[in-house]
Amino acid sequence: MSKAGTGPSNAMISAMSDLWRLRSPGPDNILAHPAFEQLREACRDGYPNAGKKGPAFALSTALRSLGLPCGLQRQTAHLALPVEAAAMGLDAAMQATHTKRVHLVPLDLAADLPSVTFGPAKVGRLTADELRSLVDETRMKRIHPRQDFDAERFSEFHWLIVEETVAIEQEPEARAIPVLFMDLSRDLGQIEPHKGRFPSAVEDALFFLLLAPWESWSTMAEVDWRGFRVPWVYTVDSDIFARLNTPPSPDTLSWEPRIYDDGYGGTVEEERPVELRMEDSVSTEMPVWDQSRWAIVEKAKQSVLFETPITHFLVRAFLVDGIDEFLAHITTIEAALGLRADYQKGFRVAPDRHKRLSASRKMRGRVAGLLGDRCYADRYEQLFGVRSAFLHGRTMSAISTQERVMARSLAREVVEALLLATQAGPIVSREHFLDDLLDKGVTKV
């Protein structure tokens, strides 16, 4: 049995050497080739996490990632690793206990934003070579020879890059084809209420960025209060047993034509990214969203004040459009300041100091108490009225840009105020904290 640090066994090297001698295009079914079966047995017998039969589809995926010569096309034949290096790579992958995932998040429509770094993430422009390195272009070309990652065009955009290290808990085959290892006895149609659209590490980074006042920095709120859009996330997993997804196309992002004089009496037409212009203040204000602020936010999220899905709805409001965006912002406020006891008397904490107040009046009071002014309670009441008119089917006009931005701003300010409240000292009970807010705010409303 192979031991950690001793490198690939003789059986592994021998089997891989036989596979590396196969000529292109290789056997019709490499999984049935004797050398492949020998390699599979070497993995099964040499590593405790290889599975009862050893990896099959996962091993085929790994060999392609390592540059199995017969699996390469003529234009990528030079990307084959020497068999010794490939064996070292396979041995390392079989022994790995963690994998590194890099999430590439294009900030579509972003104008000239300053670079910032926080937690496991960074925002900024990347050169074409930096992008090629992040996506592991050599491995990508081995797996997807007909798909091009256009790093030059992608380098014209801003990016959010999020890295995370994830523990490996499954055997290689389960990492390669998760669907074959699903528990089919469970309810396959169930909804996981807290699952996001993107990986949780990405949504954590988005939540942090969304605490910035984008609606104040925007110069075109009637177009969009956001400073950027996120149409997709491309994840590169260092685990060579995991499937490498098809590279995205820059055509999925926003471009516009640009026509200019070439200086010789002619014109040149080219494409450039569409940008949502921001106020100049973004260059000096955005850099404070740095590592120190990230630490404050992460600590605050462990407080009882954030045991409700506040982060979930603030990110949802950014990712959706129209009425769903508006409702998500209002729900963010309700998640932040609402209590089950507002609607169910059996859950009220004794003594009930505000038993005569309706749920909506309590929310008004808490908003005023948290933000320190009745005007915020009035804004909440206005927005809640729009929300109620929609949900209850009453006649209503279009939601104005002012109301749309007001909903975003109020949701952000409420969340920011809760974050600050966690810094004032330990908060033992969310219920008592919200009751204290109501004590302060009820006189203002």
Describe, in short, the structure shown.
The protein is α+β, with helices and mostly antiparallel strands. The protein is built from 18 helices and seven strands.
Give the key terms:
445 residues, alpha+beta, 3 domains, two-stranded antiparallel ribbon, globular
H-E order: HHHHEEEHHHEHHHEEEHHHHHHHH
How many structurally independent domains?
3
Order of strands across the widest beta sheet? 2-3-4-1-5
Spatial separation of the terminal alpha carbons: 74 Å
Average pLDDT works out at 93
Rough outline: globular
The largest sheet, given as strand count, sense and whether it forms a barrel, is: 5 strands, antiparallel
C-alpha Rg (nearest Å):
27 Å
Low-confidence stretches: none
Count the beta strands.
Answer: 7
Number of helices: 18
Structural class: alpha+beta
Helix percentage: 40-55%
Approximately how much beta-strand content do the residues carry? 5-15%
Structural write-up:
The chain folds into three domains: 10-95, no CATH class; 98-177 and 195-273, no CATH class; 301-441, no CATH class. By secondary structure, the chain is α+β, with helices and mostly antiparallel strands. The chain contains 18 helices and seven strands. A hairpin with a 5-residue loop joins β6 and β7. α13 (310-319) packs antiparallel against α14 (322-337) and α14 (322-337) runs parallel beside α17. Helix content is 43%, strand content 10%. The chain has a five-stranded antiparallel sheet with strand order 2-3-4-1-5. Strands 6-7 form a two-stranded antiparallel sheet.
